[in-house]
Amino acid sequence: MLNNTTMAERVAQIRNRIDQACARAGRYPREVTLLPVSKTFDVAAIREAIALGFTRFGENRTQEIAQKAPLLGDCDVQWVVIGQLQTNKAKEVAKFAHELQSLDRLELAEALDRRLQQEGRAIDVLVQVKTSPEETKSGLEPSELFTFLRQLANYQTLRVQGLMTMAVLSEDTQAVRACFAQLKQLQARAREEAIAGVSLERLSMGMSGDFEIAIEEGSTEVRVGSAIFGSRS
Ligand SMILES: *Cc1c(COP(=O)(O)O)cnc(C)c1O
Fold it and tell me: Which atom of ligand 1 is nearest to the CA of 82?
């Protein structure tokens, strides 16, 4: 599938495509961060990516972070949790994660805040919004976003940095684009409210299959797994 390319070559190709998408959108490539998603891949693959200069890695299961983190104790790695999270995993997130991109409900925020206070830590968070009609996609309903952001302002341990979404999985690029455009619009409207303690600079949107469309619609961070590490079997 990856045509015997090296990881360095694949990353260079992705950066090239990011640059071109930025050029089409009249944006600067430095506005877009590439987050490698290492879920299901082993620490050898992560070390290869570290050698290419990456320090942040996306994972969707806290158990997997707990397994990998000790094996990379000699490296300066920051774990970014991107998957749907059960409330009982708050403890692991408070221990291991640098950032959570899938915050989607008050119950989880409350559990995280309690655990983070115990750890004496604070983490960056993005609020995941459901922009796709698919039942399987998680995230907060757009209509609930503003209320939720105001509630989050009360938690000192959760530094709100922006929004995250997953687009509909579809061949219809207009449908995909509409998901990203909706998140961008929600960001603009939420910013008008200027909630104290809540920053909404960041928009995490776009994966291997749709990151160029996401960049054209304003993404500041693309989460790329298979295009860097290979297909997950
Ligand atoms: C797995 C995953 C990704 C990366 O997906 P690829 O298609 O492999 O790039 C991005 N975001 C989330 C939330 C994921 O779970």
Answer: 13
pLDDT, residue 86, reads: 95
Residue 189 lies in a domain: yes
Cβ of 223 below 6 Å from ligand 1? yes
Atom of ligand 1 nearest to the CA of 60: 15
Domain that holds residue 103: 2-228
Check which CATH number belongs to the domain holding 126 and give it. Answer: 3.20.20.10
Q: Tell me: the pLDDT tens digits for 118-153?
A: 999 999 999 999 999 877 778 999 999 999 999 999
Q: What is the arrangement of strands in the sheet containing 56-59, beginning at the earlier edge strand? A: 33-36, 221-224, 202-204, 158-164, 123-128, 97-103, 78-81, 56-59
User: What's the number of domains the chain is made of?
Assistant: 1
How many A from CA of 188 to the centre of ligand 1? 25
